[in-house]
Amino acid sequence: MNVPKSRLILIVDDDEDDRMFVRNALSQVDPDVRIAEAVDGFEALAYLRDSSKTFPDLVLLDLKMPRKDGLETLADVREDPTLRHVPVVAMFTTATDPEFVRRAYLAGANAYIGKPSNMASLRDVMSGLVKHWFEIVTLPESDHPKDVT
Q: What tens digit of pLDDT does each residue of 129-148 get?
């Protein structure tokens, strides 16, 4: 099992309540996971490219946001050689249209999860995400300029 050093999740969502619910669910399932937040794609990319910030081990990305939506953000992440390795889970969207799901995967999402309808379901989803990304899979080392020695 691989346990990343930082265990940091970047939540990218324009809805403050959704970010709060995810923070609360994560703190209940794994209080050691740290959280960083961005309110849209522009802010997320600025965070990811800022060498003074701790690079996240996982990005939870809302696909429907103003200014720069999740699909555009995901495309930018996948085109950037220093960012493309970071796992991105498309989430918090109520869209379950198969074409929308397909577009998320084509843009480079590592997973697509529909928005849980209640706190218990959200806790279950966060528990599964933490277990999968931080206990089961082996994540690549970061190419982030701050993390390169």
A: 999 999 888 877 765 545 44
Number of domains in the chain: 1
What is d(CA 17, CA 5) in angstroms, rounded to the nearest whole number? 28
C-alpha 123: how far from its chain's center?
Answer: 16
Domain limits at 130? 8-136
Of 43, 44, 33, 17, residue with least CA distance to 115: 17
1 lies in some domain: no
> Would 141 be classed as within a structural domain?
no
| The pLDDT of residue 49 is above 80 | yes
Cα–Cα distance between 14 and 46 in angstroms, integer?
15
Residue 145: how many other CB atoms lie within 10 Å? 12
The neighbouring-strand residues paired with 58 are 9
Q: How far apart are CA 57 and CA 85, in angstroms?
A: 10
- Fill in the DSSP letter of residue 32: T
Domain membership flag for residue 97: yes
CATH number for the domain spanning 46: value is 3.40.50.2300
Q: How many CB atoms lie within 10 A of CB 117?
A: 9
2 located within any domain: no
Residue 6 corresponds to which amino acid?
S
